[in-house]
């Protein structure tokens, strides 16, 4: 038999590889679906590429690559027999060495289930099976390769130390921690450091109950390091950060181990000092906690998640949840909303087979493939099936709710997509909480880049903004247009309908703080939505405005209106601001957001009769003295204050954005650069690498060389050209715009709008190369035609203009004190009813908290 197997495998030996350092083994999830070894058909791992495939997709890989040998992994999960040992044991393996380092499915109770692993080699196309382990009968190379695959870490476990934060481990002091009986009791609020009166970044030592401040950070935030000094004096190892205690846990730090740790007994340790963690409510936005006494106001955590209500779970197509990978709820909520929009469904799920058939050899690195995979997982209903009646009867008979855990909603894991879309991004590639609005813009940017030459579903969000800038001295005006994807509405506290109540609360809060008493019940500002719109439309001052009429700096004001209305309108409430410590903080506001919205009155009107335009002149470029005589030599290596860059990067901003901020503010210090970041952080290319003039070959002047030579010596990056062409601009005109603006995308867009006279000839010359769908924007109504270009041609950005009447269909809500912490959920209106998506749980909403949303999504109503 050994000779038979050896002879059988001889033709395939050159294709069987042993995983080397750097190879990722995808043995926990299919590249095209969410099948795993626990799925009915198991998982097939290619013995050459080490990619994993479900039963429905392995044949495609075999036909495309000719790879014939796969390792089939199957995990059989079964309920333990009655009376089997439980008591905290983990699921029992019957073949413990087979799936070494394969993560357990954490959605079932380890005390009630056991599993059995099975592995075998499968040779295609005849599906010849060889059970493993089979050391005696297999060739040595095959045996070594099989053993290496079975013992290799899962693909994403291997890269986590590089791109994600390491998993927090249980402290070795947790079980045996000694606590002093010194009578210390911690009040529910009003804390301050025992040594320096600090009231922020406070840590409770779990041995003696000392409340002390944390370490000092470079930006002036943090504390004076008294908690660390206390450890050095006492060797008391564990401390809890006071403003992180919730019923779900708390942040624990071990001074001796010098890292964040887990404390399984943290509830007991806190109760020693009078903190009943399990009875406490979630912390409120201002960082204070509520005590055990009933409060008249329910916290936003409970309102937004609809806690305390018997929510009915829903199953089927469009009702699949997404597992939380650890602070990944910002991604889950955004993707749920995107795939509730027909354009995204049509692009990725409607073209599923075509995308899969034409996917590259490594589909885990292909954006369209992973979007199609997630879309199909959410919309197919394959991963959202209700429990069988027999299982429900079994639950009732046993009268044990936990027994049904295996059959309840588990959701799908977006780990593969997250790894792809966050690759190289310093924030989204981490395991920290992020801003859902920033991630939405990041996804729109990725969709734009990957839709060049094909349908672009993000067109539904794109609209034109008309900006009217007026010189206050000469009263002359300038009208410009820019592309945007979201409107940001301020939340004006001065317009709150309960302003008197807010003022009274602030007085009481200050009195309580001064007298070390518990803070009064917080009062949430209630702001009319009309006030937010009014604040958005009011004129704003233009900083450093240069008047081309005066040829000097002057005072200027800017107003914004809609030059076109998108098919889907995204509205962000500006709930987050920066405190004096530069840390983002959240405004505790409730906005009475309407279900129906009419913005037609905000339609742009263009230059009015009697208005005089500002001259089309650019401000003079002032170069340092040492660069004026050196031509482009200094531009080849511009000086960037790396200390300022690192100071900003340490605050959590993307490194490339920090470099651009320091460069564009002329190395005038981190404060100026910080202001630049705040003003530009919503732009889609905010975190893109700095594009310097040095990247352009200055070449000879137009008078010294033919046009063709200038074009060859000054070619913009293809990536920038693709971004502009994906917006609907002709390729030739996009290249001219980039060349005229030193490859600056933002300035290139402005250049296109201010040079419409060149568009017609460019459009004609480019017509032969234009895809059929490049005319999609020409279906816009007369408003769109008049705002895209004065000549009426359709070479502007692709927008789907129409009436400005909308209906609310989804909103994303945030709970917590800032974008760096907390939790996101989303509500989506489907089939006439609101549904709440809270990670893997999907239920019918009983009371959707529309007034506490962060990002709102409207779809346009038909003119009829």
UniProtKB/TrEMBL annotation:
Q: Where is the composition biased (Acidic residues)?
A: 759-772
> Can you say what this protein is called?
Ubiquitin carboxyl-terminal hydrolase 13
Q: Which organism is it from?
A: Oreochromis aureus
Domain spans labelled UBA: 639-680, 715-755
User: Catalysed reaction(s)?
Assistant: Thiol-dependent hydrolysis of ester, thioester, amide, peptide and isopeptide bonds formed by the C-terminal Gly of ubiquitin (a 76-residue protein attached to proteins as an intracellular targeting signal)
Q: Where does Zn(2+) bind?
A: 193, 196, 213, 226
Any single Pfam family the record assigns to this protein: UCH
The biological processes this protein is annotated with in GO are: autophagy; protein deubiquitination; proteolysis
- Keywords for this entry? Autophagy, Hydrolase, Metal-binding, Protease, Repeat, Thiol protease, Ubl conjugation pathway, Zinc, Zinc-finger
**Is Metal-binding one of the keywords UniProt gives this record?**
yes
């Amino acid at each position: 038999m050994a000779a038979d197997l050896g002879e059988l495998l001889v033709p395939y030996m050159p294709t069987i590889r042993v995983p080397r350092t750097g190879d990722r083994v995808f043995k926990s999830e299919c590249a095209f679906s969410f099948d795993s070894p626990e799925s009915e058909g198991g998982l097939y791992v290619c013995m050459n590429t080490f990619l994993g495939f479900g039963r429905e997709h392995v044949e495609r890989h075999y036909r495309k690559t000719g790879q014939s040998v796969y390792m089939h992994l199957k995990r059989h999960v079964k309920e333990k027999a009655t009376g089997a040992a439980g008591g905290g044991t983990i699921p029992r393996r019957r073949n413990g060495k087979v799936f070494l380092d394969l993560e357990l499915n954490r959605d079932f109770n380890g005390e009630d289930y056991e599993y059995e692993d099975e592995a075998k080699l499968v040779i295609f196309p005849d599906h010849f099976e060889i059970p493993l382990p089979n050391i005696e009968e297999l060739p040595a190379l095959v045996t070594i390769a099989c053993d290496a695959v079975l013992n290799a870490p899962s693909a994403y476990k291997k890269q986590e130390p590089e791109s994600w934060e390491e998993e927090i481990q249980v402290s070795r002091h947790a079980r045996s921690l000694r606590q002093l009986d010194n009578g210390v009791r911690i009040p529910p609020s009003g804390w301050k450091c025992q040594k320096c009166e600090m009231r922020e970044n406070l840590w409770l030592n779990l041995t003696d109950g000392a409340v002390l401040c944390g370490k000092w950070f470079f930006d002036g935030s943090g504390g004076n390091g008294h908690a660390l000094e206390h450890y050095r004096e006492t060797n008391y190892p564990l401390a809890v950060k006071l403003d992180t205690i919730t019923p779900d846990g708390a942040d624990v730090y071990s001074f001796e181990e010098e890292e964040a740790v887990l404390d399984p007994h943290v509830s007991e340790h806190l109760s020693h000092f009078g903190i009943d963690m399990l009875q406490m409510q979630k912390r409120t936005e201002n960082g204070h906690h509520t005590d055990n006494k009933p409060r008249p106001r329910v916290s936003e955590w409970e309102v937004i998640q609809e806690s305390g209500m018997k929510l009915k779970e829903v199953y089927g197509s469009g009702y699949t949840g997404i597992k939380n990978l650890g602070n990944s709820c910002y991604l889950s909520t955004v993707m749920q909303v995107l795939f509730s929009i027909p354009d995204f469904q049509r692009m990725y799920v409607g073209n599923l087979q075509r995308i899969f058939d034409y996917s590259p050899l490594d589909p885990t690195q292909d954006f369209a493939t992973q979007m199609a995979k997630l879309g199909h997982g959410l919309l197919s209903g394959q991963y959202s099936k209700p429990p069988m009646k027999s299982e429900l009867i079994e639950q009732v008979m046993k009268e044990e709710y936990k027994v049904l855990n295996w059959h309840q909603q588990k959701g799908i894991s977006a780990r593969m997509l997250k790894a792809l879309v966050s690759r190289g991004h310093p924030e989204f590639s981490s395991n920290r909480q992020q801003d859902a609005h920033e991630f939405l813009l990041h996804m729109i940017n990725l969709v734009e880049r990957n839709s060049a030459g094909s349908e672009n579903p993000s067109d539904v969000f794109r609209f034109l903004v008309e900006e009217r800038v007026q010189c206050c001295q000469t009263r002359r005006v300038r009208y410009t247009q820019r592309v945007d994807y979201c409107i940001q509405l301020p939340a004006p506290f001065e317009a709150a309908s309960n302003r008197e109540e807010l003022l009274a609360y602030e007085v009481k809060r200050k009195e309580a703080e001064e007298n070390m008493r518990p803070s009064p019940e917080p009062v949430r500002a209630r702001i009319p939505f009309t006030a937010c719109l009014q604040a958005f439309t009011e004129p704003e001052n233009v900083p450093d405005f240069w008047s081309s009429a005066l040829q000097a700096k002057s005072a200027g004001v800017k107003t914004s209106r809609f030059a076109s209305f998108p098919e889907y309108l995204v509205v962000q409430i500006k709930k987050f601001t920066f405190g004096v410590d530069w840390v983002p903080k959240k405004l505790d506001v409730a906005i009475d957001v309407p279900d129906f919205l009419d913005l037609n009155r905000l339609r742009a009107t263009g230059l009015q009769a009697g208005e005089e335009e500002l001259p089309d002149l650019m401000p003079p470029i002032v170069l340092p003295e040492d660069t004026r005589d050196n031509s482009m030599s200094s531009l080849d290596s511009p000086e960037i204050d790396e200390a300022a860059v690192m100071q900003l990067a340490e605050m959590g901003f993307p490194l490339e954005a920090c470099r651009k901020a320091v460069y564009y503010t002329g190395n005038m210090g981190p404060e100026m650069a910080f202001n630049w970041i705040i003003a530009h952080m919503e732009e889609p290319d905010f975190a893109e690498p700095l594009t310097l003039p040095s990247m352009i070959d200055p070449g000879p002047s137009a008078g010294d060389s033919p046009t063709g030579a200038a074009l060859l010596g000054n070619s913009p990056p293809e990536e920038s050209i693709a971004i502009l062409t994906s917006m609907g601009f002709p390729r030739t005109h996009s290249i001219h715009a980039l060349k005229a603006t030193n490859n600056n995308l933002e300035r290139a867009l402005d250049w296109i709008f201010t040079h419409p006279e060149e568009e017609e000839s460019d459009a004609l010359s480019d017509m032969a190369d234009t895809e059929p769908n490049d005319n999609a924007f020409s279906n816009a109504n007369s408003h769109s035609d008049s705002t895209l270009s004065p000549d009426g041609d359709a070479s502007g950005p692709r927008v789907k203009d129409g009436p400005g009447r909308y209906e609310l269909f989804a909103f994303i809500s945030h709970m917590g004190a800032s974008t760096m912490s907390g939790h996101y959920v989303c509500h989506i209106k489907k089939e006439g009813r609101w549904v709440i998506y809270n990670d893997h749980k999907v239920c019918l909403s009983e009371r959707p908290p529309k007034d506490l949303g962060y990002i709102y999504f409207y779809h346009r109503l038909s003119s009829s």
